[in-house]
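Reopening this one. Same input as before:
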Amino acid sequence: MAKTDATADTTHFGYKTVPVDDKAELVRGVFDSVASRYDIMNDLMSGGLHRLWKRHTIDQAGVRKGHIVLDLAGGTGDLAKEFTRRVGTSGHVVLADINAAMLIQGRRRMVDGGVAGNLSIAQVDAQNLPFDDGAFDCITVAFGLRNVTDKSAALHSMHRVLKPGGKLLILEFSEPAEAIRPAYDFYSFKVLPILGKLVARDEDSYQYLAESIRMHPDQETLLAMMQTAGLERCRYQNLAGGIVALHIGHRL
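Same output, byte for byte:
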């Protein structure tokens, strides 16, 4: 993976090094731009595989009736919608994201899907979650952690709001096997920006998304970060040859 230097005052925005205080605004600009076409782009980019990866995450969550679930960086609500069905009327799901444009799309999908009564929508910063200690039985983050400025702070915050016995699941692009890396790099940097230009009318945002994947911690690094944040029984599963990894940890 390509890396660039960062300091206490700077961080990564794709391959660029930017002031820490600027990243959230830059990321917001990306998702403001792509929000209305986010779902169709996900289908095109992954050939629909993202739906299988998310379904696997939902199944691994083990959510059941009465559970309280936080779908963090939940965007348009793919996971949250299914979780509302699984927790039933005695449970509750919070669909949360830092980006208002993504939450607007998520709200529309929930209304269109008839979801009501056991769902809340909240605009939050993952680095400083505004929830009580031990509020959630389960937290999921699907394809959102790599956009967080301070991932360690976010992991500590997630640990805090998990109930004892609660589970955190992070589904994210990761480091693929060596054998498929050349083809993956070609697709990411040659094909993906063209799709972004043609479908989302935004080539630059999808260039950033490809770069942000390369700057995200690899499987073992993220595993260690979760452990440092206090999570236990941490493990990960590689999906699609490591293009995507599902990390799982618990608060004991």
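So the earlier flakiness isn't reproducible anymore. For the record, Confidence is low (pLDDT under 50) at residues 1-5.
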